[in-house]
Write a structure and sequence with these properties.
The structure holds two protein chains of two kinds. Chain A has 17 helices and four strands. Chain A is mostly helical. Chain A has two domains: about 1-40 and about 170-365, no CATH class; about 45-165, D-Maltodextrin-Binding Protein, domain 2 (3-Layer(aba) Sandwich). Chain A has a four-stranded mixed β-sheet with strand order 2-1-3-4, with helices on both faces. The longest helix of chain A has 30 residues, at about 15-45. By secondary structure, chain B is α/β, with parallel strands linked by helices. Chain B has two domains: about 5-225, 3-Layer(aba) Sandwich (Rossmann fold); about 230-295, Alpha-Beta Plaits. Chain B is built from eleven helices and 14 strands. In chain B, the strands form three sheets. A six-stranded mixed β-sheet of chain B has the order 6-7-8-3-9-10, with helices on both faces. A four-stranded antiparallel β-sheet of chain B has the order 2-1-4-5, covered by helices on one side. Chain B is elongated and about 80 Å long. Classes of the chains: A mainly alpha, B alpha/beta. At the A-B interface, helix 1 and helix 10 of A face helix 2 and helix 3 of B.
Amino acid sequence: MRNYIYYRFKTLLGDKMMLFWTLLFPVALALFFSFTLVKVYSTATAFEAIEVAVPQTLDNQSILKAVLPVLEEEDLILVNSTKDLESAKTQLQDGEISAIIQETDGIVMTVKSSTSDSTILKMIFDQITQKTSMLERIFSQKPELAATDFINEAYTVETYTTQIKDDNMSFSVIYFYSLMAMEILYGIQWGVKSTYYLQAQRSPAALRTNIAPMSRLKLVLIDIGVVFVITAVEVLLLYLFIRYPLNISFGNQVFWVIAASLAALFTAIALGYFISVYLKGEERHKEGLATAITLTFSFSCGMQYPGLKYLVGRYLPWFATINPAYLLTDSYYTLYYGKAISIVEKNIMITLAIGVIAAILAAIRLRGDQYDSL
Amino acid sequence: MNSIIEVNDLVKRYGDFTALNHLNLEVQQGEILGLLGPNGSGKTTAINCILALLRYDHGSIKVFDQAMTPASKDAKRRIGYVMQSVGVIDELNVRENIDYFCSLYVSDAKKRKQMVSEAIEFVGLQDFQKRMPKKLSGGLLRRLNIACGIAHKPELIILDEPTVAVDPQSRNNILEGIKELNRLGATVLYTSHYMEEVEQLCDRITIIDGGKKIAEGTKSELIAQTNSSEKIYAEVGDLSEAQLETLRKLPFVAEAVLNHGELCVSCGKGDNNLSALLAAFEKHKIDFGHIRNQLPTLNDLFLEITGKELRDTHA
């Protein structure tokens, strides 16, 4: 049995392409993120206020009236004195200011081109808009909260400006968390690959294995164990790389980070087995679907565009709930901000439930000792 | 003699298509049974049923005198399978591949090491032990495929068209190897659509078509079932009608036809037709040049029963 386990490790690890995509590629992507975001980090740590124009008179009800002084006080922005839109446009064109900020139905930001300054401003005002919308909904249901310190506690601008100064990673962690989620979702690919050697109709080598006097259940369990160890080591290596050389914080509750990660990993592998045993067709179709699911789940938790995570959570809550990557990054944020562990526990339970369902359905198909066709 | 495999009334359907149509098959201990049939005749399906890989609709299968099921571990341990496709793992080298598949049958590491070495020697891969499968030629890959199937020294070896797409030299090596395994005590079930191979290798032959057994016996028994007979072709140049009539009256001649200087003599059942014809040529002073005879083949039998050719011969 030891011999069999050894060869299963050797077989799976012998796939160089798989190792590249599931280990080297995420590490390279982490490096890429750190290089491309480095200017944003340094801007945040040695922050020079970003000069903007607000060419309108703000009334007392406007959001900008409330937040601009806070942002200026925190030296995040510097609002110049221009009140004329045409002059502001000329200043923007000449590079004297980084953006024109206006408030009509919402906050509108005009930039000349995409720069690190514009990225920071966009993130700030996106968050302000989102949180303001959230507060409006809360106050419409519980107007009594408006008279309390709730606004100050909940107001993102203050939290955000504090974070951006205290921790230069605060808005970039989303990239790294989604990268970790992607790495864990590569468990799907490993699950698909594993069954290539377990189902007789998938490969001649699997057929040979199936006629041997070995319990199918035993072989499947060994393979799941081997795949779990391989992917867990990959995840650990990426975590250590992101955590230490790149200095991205995951908060102080390592136990819960590990628990959430392992739960997502189990579910990813189970999904890989599920896909490979239920999807008929060629290997490339199974691998293609596994890749598509991995990327879709990672994308929707903010890998390419951090704001998408918020949008998915708001407009596609059911998708967020069945997306292990979304649940995992949600847990990471919760742990990073030191919020209630109950959120993490809930996410882990949902993730495990998805994994157990996928595993049971896959096991029903895999436990069959005979085939209708080969 | 004990039966190692007994297949009775086996039916396997894929939807409306009947792959095995009440097939009966028996493999006796110590023999090489050839399962001969054209592509799509049901040979591989029959084997997959025998190996308890495929569910079937009707019938029974016994191997080593016990009903064969997926749980028949004792029987499985005594079976070796060499499949038509090369079933090896690309990420493991030659020795590791054989060791890997052998480890599914033999847990004792020391014993297994010995078995793997013997298998490597048997198929002549000593110089390629560290080589990865993708670096092997087609012939060497086939040898590795065989080694993976027989390393655990099975009592019953099932070979499913192991020589497909193999060069003649490798094919001869493979056939010699199978004979050697049989000499060493293994019972062999060998499937092929190459009648020459089956004729050359097997003690008994079962011919199937459309999932059904259509003939069975030793080669000579099967040939005896044909209505075809030995034909002798001789270049005789010009032959008078009287000479031709004389030949037609010979007791072993069923028919004699002259066509563009070539005489074709169809013989009746019996032996020594060629020498008898040569004696007649001498007696009647008939000069001849090139002469050849053609004995009836399994293809003739297959043609008579099914109305179609068994298959093409080796390329």
